[in-house]
Amino acid sequence: MKFNLRFLFIALFICTISIAQNKGTISGVLTDKDMNNAALPFANVLVKGTNISVNTDVDGKYSLSVNPGNYTLIFSFLGYESVEAPVAVKANETVTVNQGLSSGSYTLKDVVVQASTGSKQKESALLLEQKNAVDIKQSIGAQELSRKGVSDVAAAVSKTTGITKQEGSGNIFVRGLGDRYNSTTMNGLPIPSNDPEKKNINLEIFSTDILEYVSIDKVYSSKLYGDFAGGNVDIISKDYKGNGYFKIEMGSNVNTNALAEKDFKLQRGISSFGFDNPSIPNNPLTQYNYNTLQMDGKNPIAGSLGISGGKSFNVGDGGKLSFFATANFSNEYNSIRNATAKGGVNGAGVANKDFYSYTDMGYQTNSTGLLNVGYKINSDNKVSFNTVYINTSSQSKEEYAGYIVDLANNGNGLIRRFNYEKNSLWINQLLGDHKLSDRSKLNWAASYNIIDGSMPDRAQNTFRNEPNGYVLSSISRPDNHRYFQKLKEDELAGNLSVDYKFNKNSDDEYKGKFTLGASGRIKNRNFEASQFNFLSQPGYTNTIVDPNNLDLFYNETNLNNGYFNISTFRGNSQVSNALDPQTYDGKQTIFGGYLNTEYKFNPKLTAVLGLRAESIVQNVDWNTQLGDVGSDELSKVAFLPSLTMKYELNEKQNLRLGFSKTYTLPQFKERALFVYEEVLQVKVGNPYLYESDDYNLDLKWEMFPTSDELISFTAFGKYILNPMNEVTIASSSNDISYINTGDYGYVAGAEVEYRKMLFNFDEVNAKKLSAGINASYLHTSQELNADKVDRETDYQVVFTNTKSQFTGASDLLLNADLSYLAEWQNDRSLNTTIAYSYFSDRINAIGTNGRGDLVDKAFGSLDFIAKSKLNKNLGLDFVVKNILDPKINRVQENASGDVNVLSYKKGLGLSFKLNYTF
């Protein structure tokens, strides 16, 4: 028996060896016809009628081992037309079958837009681009954003290494550097800010529905404007491929805090769609024509509705015309409940405003529309047009109850602020790509953008709760006011570049490339604000009022009877220019030219040496409540060298180096003598503020074990001359201003990223578990020099410390996610992700006059995302955000101990979304 088994085993082994030796091999390369025959990675090659298949590698290559015979190969890729090719295979021979794929007449019926608008939405394709590029950059595509339940660009970029989002806003910090050090573009063209306080637009207003991917440059290259130190966020809009599809989706969302409010109320008279734009009423000083101060109850259940579609047409010989459009509306309710807040805390920990109760109820809307038209004239020429319109609104009711020095010393004060903001942005872009010859290529782009931002009719009232009821404060005129703000900005920008390849080698490859380019932008801003103060007159200062029905006191009859009067910062109706608003106007022109030289010294080493020259002129004129009419000009000519080097250690590993010099400009409002008042702080501009110069160094190692895996480590440093900060200046009201606070500052840190496929449970029907983690450690330090401030400005600052971290910089940043994907027959699938993010303590404002630094304390956030396809047409998504619901704290780190100045919880966010694709 043993002999028979041994004989049988030997026979089977010999037979197996014989069969293996007789097999043939099919190999080749797949290319993308729509992308000038570039390699097409991660496409599928299947032997028809069998289970034998393989995916192409990062270079588009594949290889199959089969028995001798005649076969048919099927080449396929999502969003592209499948192709069948016959092949005859002989024993022990290799047959080469190369194939190009095109979107051609492909009809998109069972694939959502993420699969159809180009491979750069795929995580694997973006990793390939990162691997092959000489520039050092990170990208996050629509596929990854969908998997992580990300709905806006601000949340998208915060998922990448070294970037965090400021709590309660769309502002981001890149490697510890905030708004002033970063820039935002769309398809490589600048876009304006919708906030007079900020340089960059609020990234939360950009829905991920309009983008293909987001690229983050944290290393400077000369094609970018020189106003760069942290990073540049480039939003790449969708570029449709395919024959036609139409998709509709609707959803609902709730915030648990808002849902728990027994009496969720907002100011009456504001439309729920967010397009209202109230203006200053007629005769605002002599007649009472203001909107009501009464409130309406709301049902805090929000929703969303969106449609999208695309279609491509063949035009002539090799031409293609493509259309893609999307429109959506979404809203959201939120609430901060049972919170506490303090303002004006001194070094001994005593606050001039100490609120035992702080409540903020809010409602936001976002209406977005995008149209993309692309015309591929032929394989060498393409032009495209993008127009994007975004309208956002934010309505809130803030209430602060507690102690207010000299007004409510018994802790019986109440401040209520109704705020409504509306911003509309219109982006128009025309772009062209032209292959002039095998050696040269021309790229050009132009844009015209308009921003219209307004804060129409902010209302604030201040009360004391006396034994008989509430009375309005009559100590200071601004305690009770209506505020109207308008911001209009337009910007014209353009880019032009020509590539020329040189030094062809024996393999018909060019070793070098020159890029000569120019870019320019002209930005104009007009800002105006009017505040109407309501002061109770003698005899009516103790009138009992109903805070929930102030229309009984503030009305036309009581104004005519002298209960109160209305004035601006210039005075009342008796002053001829009383109605003149506060204004500032800004104009900024930047023109630059650059020359990049890219050269491949050998198969492993490539370097890009760049030099950019820029002329910058920034003018600001103002007429503000400080009684000042003035102007100022900042001009600069900058020469900005940059060097990027890439060394390929092997096929899967790269070593990269980046060095550059850049600068950082102050913003219009920071240099205008304009006062902006919040409930807890007052800000004023500084016309003596000037630019910083920045020196940047990066060293990065990266490894790509497979097509969808990455390991990377980066060390970086930045040295900044004359850094700018927001600090409290010596003034009666502890105003905050913008100051060059010292001669130098620096940032040093390290980043690590790891993406790993943990398990692949089923090769045929995808069932896999993957994970990703990225973390960064930062050390920042800057000199604080009071003598420099006194010498260079009209302000005085007494710093509590002689050194400080940069504001917004966390020592530790962490993002992690775990995803499970399962696909079944009949187009059914389930993708679930758990995502976690964390940041350690970071400085919100630098301490002065014996006060410690204001510090935002560390916290972590956990989200759960589930996205399913019930069949080829119907999809269902479920998302839970902020599962841990941590308490968010801001403290002032005084020498005597920390003082908690702000504490609240955001609540959980739950959303459902149903989508149907035709």
From TrEMBL:
Entry keyword annotation includes Transferase: no
Signal peptide location: 1-20
Subcellular localization: Cell outer membrane
Superkingdom per UniProt: Bacteria
SUPFAM superfamilies according to UniProt: Carboxypeptidase regulatory domain-like, Porins
Ranges in a coiled coil: none
Keywords: Cell outer membrane, Membrane, Receptor, Signal, TonB box
Pfam families linked: CarbopepD_reg_2, Plug, TonB_dep_Rec_b-barrel
Domain annotation TonB-dependent receptor-like beta-barrel: ranges: 457-883
Location of the TonB-dependent receptor plug domain: 137-231
Family: Belongs to the TonB-dependent receptor family.
Family annotation (PANTHER family): PLUG DOMAIN-CONTAINING PROTEIN, TONB-DEPENDENT RECEPTOR
Protein name: Outer membrane receptor proteins, mostly Fe transport
